[in-house]
Structure formats: structure tokens, C-alpha cells
Design goal:
By secondary structure, the chain is an alpha/beta fold. Helices cover about 40% and strands about 15% of the residues. It has an eight-stranded parallel beta barrel, surrounded by six helices. A four-stranded antiparallel β-sheet has the order 11-18-16-13, with no helix packed on it. It has a four-stranded antiparallel β-sheet with strand order 15-14-12-17.
């Protein structure tokens, strides 16, 4: 009996997120929407992941307006989004009332399929979103984040699929974010899951290691019902297998997708031209990176590590960092490397190489170790857990569902937004935007009326306006980072931040920035008394929070302010 394979094209989310730094404007999607709606896809992944962040941070677009317009333009095709479980689209756990309101608002605006994952495969972190999606009568696709470690086995993945089915999933997805799923392993894994559950099974496999086409075919032969692909101009590299190629491979077989290749070719021709506009954001990685087969580091994470180390003037340490990642992943309990655990493990590995192993733990590393992100696949190193507990001044690890410790926060968020007086009327959509990205949302609200930014080739490789520096965007696992690259020996001056910064008196000890980053928080008031070991400033570096402590006692004099970009060695605090 013929079995039609359902196809989800991810070009409008994961495709341009992987290859064009998530910079595609909604207007360029809408121009081809009518044709995409006629193809017969099972769904189109159009929202979630980094698209929400990118819309308000870089494009001056309202992400809610995007999904509304896309659904209106493609009424015959299901709109699908990627949701990070209790993290939603941000980088922390949200209270259950925020999760419920976000899902409700997403459905109201056009989302019909929610692909839900948790970086640790801790199903407790997926429960609230499952319940909220079920309440809205939308489709729940429960995700298995695929990793290759001593504690991740086919049997455990199959049991996880069974658990997701019991929780109310409508379908299951194997999420192979690093391209590590080998074709014959995929065959075994699909068969094991199909034996345990009766749900449709989707396979999502990135092309980074060059195995994805073969992996999809073996998965289909083993019983997979659905696959992810990307229209060819937005495929391969760190993206996905090309839609047209898979359609042609399966044509006239029992697995025929029945998608119109002529129409797909017209869509491909459109994107071939449209992506030229985004040349300045195009990933330089378009081939195959077999280093990942050894390091098991996602391709986007690998390129980001290179840029992080370049920013810290330590690019020669890349091989050391790649080796360190395997150590940190093991010590942290073998978390799969996907947002946010990929950033946590990667950044901690950089800090280990730069400062000595675990001499500087990021705030996120501490919280992961003590269970605030959920249950890790294996127990973390006991000595590291003890260190994290001490530094956080916490008595015991979190053994319950982390969100159980979070009080409802919708009213608090609304009160904050009202106090800031940024909006005349606070809609659910704007409240959710503020909840996801409270640091970015105010600027977006103020500038939203100006409309989307204009993007032209070469527009974004110009100087950032800081002498001797050029600005680049680096994307890792769906998160964009601003990176400034300058010639060795030059300094980066930001007149807007340094003009009013106080100078050191010369009477005390000056603490300088150990890493490049942004001043995230000044935790003390001016002239506060401190003793050795006290935290005097918190930096955000590589999307992680790093506490900077004093070795001396005295009074605090800040030499910088919140929001200032700092380079290694820049003065931060004087202890007098």
C-alpha cells in the first residue's frame, strides 16, 4: 500500500535562520506565499526559534504581524512554530501563566502546529506548553533532542517517545540539530519508536555533516511519516536537505510525496534571486564539516566559537576549546547541545580554556548544575554541583520541575510595562513581546511605527561607526550575536558610553574586564563597602552572565555603566 510522505518545508524559519542569520523580511516571504500555499506541504515552519528575537532586535518588524500575514496569505497550509518548552522563545524558564498566555496568543494569531522541545529532554519542562496547546486545540509535536553520548540510547529515546505520547502529543519529531543522526542508526531509531507509539513520526536532520539526505531516506524506509526539508536555495550547509531533491528521489515510489516539482522549481527560482539581497548575512559555511562527527558540536556553534575566541584574541585556542567541550558536556551531565545548553556548555568551555577549568563559572552553568534548567540526562559532577551551590548561596539542588518554584508573573510583567509608559494600550501580543525580551522590547516599541528596516546587499558590511571596527552578525543554534572585529593593536572607543564614564583616581585597585562583552548589571551602589570575594559587577559575555569579583576590600567606584560594551582589559571598577 502506497504511503504518502508528508513534508514540512522549513525555509521560512530554520532555512534562513541557518543560512541568512534569520534576516529575511516578511515582505520577501509574502511575495511567494501564494505559490507555497499551493504545493501541498503538510506544514510550513514559519515562526519561533530565533525569528521572534530577530524581528524585534534587527528588522523592526512585529513578529505577531508576521505570523498573521503569513497565515492570511497561506490559508490552506498549516503554520508551524518551534517552541522551547518552558523557555518559550527566551533563555529562561517562564511561569506557567506566561506559557499559557503565550500559546493562546500564538494560536489566535495563526500558529496551528507547535513543535515543542526541551534541551535536556526533561518532559516536565514540556508539560505546561503541552497543556496550553491542548487547551487551544492545536497540534502538539513532541520533540526528542538527539545527541550521541554514553547515556543516550535508542531504547531511552523510544521510551521518551512513549512518554510524549502519554502526555498528549499528536506527533513525534526526532530533532537532529547537529546532523549526527547516521542513516542506519536512523533506521533503528525509527523502528524502535514506531514499535513503542502509534503516532506519526517526523524526522528533522541538519545537513552539516553531509548525511541528511541518506538519513531521511533510511528513516522513511523504516516507517517515518513526515520529514523536514528546505527549498534548495535555502538548503544544505547548516540548513536541511533540499525539498526538490527529496521529492524527486521518492517520486514514483511507494513513498511519493505527490508534491508538484514544477511548482517547487518556480519557488526555488524565486528564493535564488531573493536571497541575493541578504548576501551580507549569508553563512560562509556552505559545504560539509566532518569535524562535528568527532566534536559533536553543532555547525553554528562551531562557527560562533571561532568568532568568540577571535573577539577574546584567543583564536589559537579553538582546538583546546573543542576538546574541552567534551569534558564540560560530561561534567554537566551530558546535556544535548541545543539552545540554551549549547551556549552554556560552549561558553563555559571557552572560559575554562582562558581562565583554568571551572575557575569562573557562568551564572547559567551554575543553574544548570543545580537543576534549575531541569533534570540532566546523567548526574553532573558532584564537586561542581557543590561549587555551584556555594557560589549561588543555595542549600540544595532543585529536584522538582523548576517552574514549580516560579510564581505567576503575568500581572507583574504587565505592571512593569505600564510603569515604563511605553504603550498607550497593552495588547496581549505586546505583553508577550515584553515578556520574551524585556531588554529589547522598549526600543522596538518606540521605533515600530517606522516600519521594517531596509536591507540591501553590502549595506551591513560597512563600518559600525566605531573607528577601526567592523560589525558582523554571527548565528549559533538560532541565536544572533553582534561581533565587532578590529585590527590587532587597535582599541574600540564608544564615545556615547565613555564620555561620561568616571576615571580611576589612582588611589585604589582597578578591576578590568576579563573578557569582552557588555556590562549587564552594577549590583552595588556607589561607595558600597566590599570585602574580598564580593561580586562587584556582572558582565554579559557570549550570551552568558559572568560575575566579576574583587580580591580587595574597600569602597566601590564604578568606571563604567550598564549597557557599555567592553573589551578585554577595559577598566570596570576601582576599589578604594
Amino acid at each position: 500500500m502506497a504511503k504518502k510522505i508528508a513534508v514540512t518545508d522549513v525555509a521560512l524559519r530554520d532555512g534562513h535562520q541557518s543560512l541568512l542569520a534569520t534576516r529575511m523580511l516578511t515582505s520577501d516571504m509574502l511575495k511567494i506565499a501564494e505559490k507555497m500555499d499551493k504545493v501541498g506541504y503538510w506544514s510550513l515552519e514559519t515562526w519561533g526559534g530565533a525569528t521572534f528575537d530577530s524581528c524585534i532586535r534587527f528588522l523592526n518588524e512585529d513578529p505577531w504581524e508576521r505570523i498573521r500575514n503569513l497565515k492570511k496569505a497561506m490559508p490552506n497550509t498549516k503554520m508551524q512554530m518551534l517552541l522551547r518548552g518552558q523557555n518559550l522563545l527566551g533563555y529562561r524558564h517562564y511561569a506557567d501563566d506566561v506559557v499559557e498566555k503565550f500559546v493562546e496568543t500564538a494560536v489566535k494569531n495563526g500558529v496551528e502546529v507547535f513543535r515543542v522541545f526541551d534541551a535536556l529532554n526533561d518532559t516536565r519542562n514540556m508539560k505546561a506548553s503541552f497543556d496550553a496547546i491542548k487547551k487551544q486545540k492545536a497540534h502538539i509535536q513532541g520533540c526528542i533532542s538527539y545527541a550521541v553520548t554514553p547515556v543516550h540510547t535508542i531504547e531511552k529515546y523510544a521510551e521518551l517517545a512513549k512518554e510524549l505520547e502519554k502526555m498528549g502529543a499528536d506527533s513525534i519529531c526526532i530533532k537532529d540539530m547537529s546532523g549526527l543522526l547516521k542513516p542506519y542508526i536512523a533506521e533503528e531509531l525509527v523502528k524502535a519508536i514506531k514499535q513503542k507509539t502509534s503516532l506519526p513520526l517526523s524526522v528533522h536532520s541538519h545537513s552539516t555533516t553531509g548525511m541528511s539526505v541518506a538519513t531521511l531516506i533510511k528513516a522513511i524506509e523504516a516507517g517515518a511519516d513526515m520529514i523536514d526539508t528546505a527549498i534548495s536555495p535555502l538548503s544544505m550547509g547548516t540548513s536541511h536537505s533540499p525539498t526538490e531533491s527529496i521529492v524527486e528521489i521518492l517520486k514514483n515510489t511507494e513513498f511519493d510525496t505527490q508534491l508538484d516539482l514544477t511548482l517547487l522549481s518556480e519557488i526555488a527560482e524565486y528564493f535564488k534571486e531573493a536571497k541575493k539581497k541578504y548576501a551580507d548575512y549569508a553563512s560562509s559555511f556552505t559545504g560539509v564539516d566532518t569535524r562535528i562527527l568527532l566534536s559533536q558540536v553543532p555547525g553554528g556553534m562551531l562557527s560562533n566559537l571561532e568568532n568568540q575566541l577571535r573577539e577574546q584574541n584567543a583564536l589559537d585556542k579553538l582546538d583546546d576549546v573543542l576538546k574541552e567541550i567534551t569534558v564540560v558536556q560530561k561534567d554537566f551531565g551530558y546535556p544535548p547541545l541545543v539552545t540554551p545548553t549549547s551556549q552554556i556548555v560552549g561558553t563555559q568551555s571557552v572560559f575554562n580554556v582562558l581562565f583554568g577549568r571551572y575557575n569562573k563559572l557562568t551564572a547559567e552553568s551554575k543553574n544548570l548544575l543545580i537543576g534549575n534548567y531541569g533534570r540532566t540526562p546523567a548526574k553532573p559532577d558532584a564537586d561542581l554541583v557543590k561549587k555551584a551551590l556555594q557560589e549561588l548561596a543555595v542549600e540544595k539542588t532543585t529536584d522538582c520541575r523548576p517552574a514549580d518554584l516560579l510564581p505567576n508573573e503575568l500581572d507583574k510583567l504587565r505592571a512593569e510595562l505600564e510603569e515604563k509608559k511605553l504603550l498607550d494600550n497593552i495588547s496581549d501580543e505586546d505583553l508577550m513581546t515584553y515578556a520574551m525580551f524585556p531588554q529589547v522590547a522598549p526600543k522596538f516599541f518606540a521605533e515600530r511605527a517606522n516600519g521594517p528596516v531596509e536591507i540591501k546587499p553590502s549595506e551591513n558590511t560597512k563600518s559600525s561607526g566605531k573607528k577601526g571596527a567592523e560589525a558582523y552578525i554571527v548565528n549559533v543554534d538560532g541565536v544572533d550575536y553582534n561581533v565587532s572585529v578590529r585590527e590587532e593593536g587597535t582599541i574600540l572607543i564608544d564615545a556615547g558610553n565613555t564620555a561620561s564614564a568616571p576615571k580611576a583616581s589612582g588611589d585604589g585597585k582597578v578591576i578590568t574586564a576579563p573578557v569582552a562583552g557588555t556590562v549587564f548589571k552594577l549590583p552595588l551602589s556607589e561607595n558600597s563597602e566590599v570585602v574580598s570575594g564580593d561580586t562587584v559587577i556582572i558582565l554579559e559575555s557570549m550570551k552568558m552572565e559572568l560575575e566579576v569579583k574583587t580580591a580587595d576590600a574597600g569602597k566601590v567606584r564604578y568606571l563604567t555603566k550598564e549597557g557599555t560594551s567592553v573589551a578585554v582589559g577595559d577598566p570596570l571598577v576601582e576599589i578604594v
